């Protein structure tokens, strides 16, 4: 009687562990799919792949501009903000080019080096842009990214999805997938050992 209860409890534990392992594998595959269709295309589309050194030539704040209305955005999301234009000397080619914060900045407003978020208010935006301009004037040399193919003549300060960040995103689903597979393998080994012991 006791032996039957132990066997039943063991089978229940193995079933739960097997379900946990399969669930972890399924979740990791869904995470791989989500990252693959949302983030990887932005990474592969970016042409600013080579890092170099940029030297600030001028950092000016122009008159206030409106953020261009992108598809699907509402009118209340558009507000005037000071347009910061930063021109740098590209060490790799010696050209005078315009610097943008990220790839997204160029798409949102190619006239300005920095585009604030929609949730920020006007006073915060003004203070932030003035601080950024002062930092560029203070720190004249810094790393930046340019397009080695020459498709884009401008440069960006930082990539939205650098290689290290992409690897970090894939780390968690990989660990979950490995853990799930390990649980499944251990359950199968346990079942095999139990069957072998019962046969003997």
Automatic annotation (TrEMBL):
Location of the protein in the cell: Membrane
Topology within the bilayer: Multi-pass membrane protein
Chief subcellular location: membrane
Keywords carried by this UniProt record: Glycoprotein, Ion channel, Ion transport, Membrane, Transmembrane, Transmembrane helix, Transport
An annotated GO cellular component: voltage-gated potassium channel complex
Protein origin, superkingdom: Eukaryota
InterPro entries per the UniProt record, alphabetical: K_chnl_Ca-activ_BK_bsu
Entry GO MF terms: calcium-activated potassium channel activity; potassium channel regulator activity
UniProt cross-references to Pfam families, sorted A to Z: CaKB
Transmembrane domains' residue ranges: 20-43, 166-187
GO biological process: detection of calcium ion
PANTHER family the UniProt entry points to: CALCIUM-ACTIVATED POTASSIUM CHANNEL SUBUNIT BETA (PTHR10258), CALCIUM-ACTIVATED POTASSIUM CHANNEL SUBUNIT BETA-1 (PTHR10258:SF1)
Family to which the UniProt record says this protein belongs: Belongs to the KCNMB (TC 8.A.14.1) family. KCNMB1 subfamily.
Protein name stated in the entry: KCMB1 protein
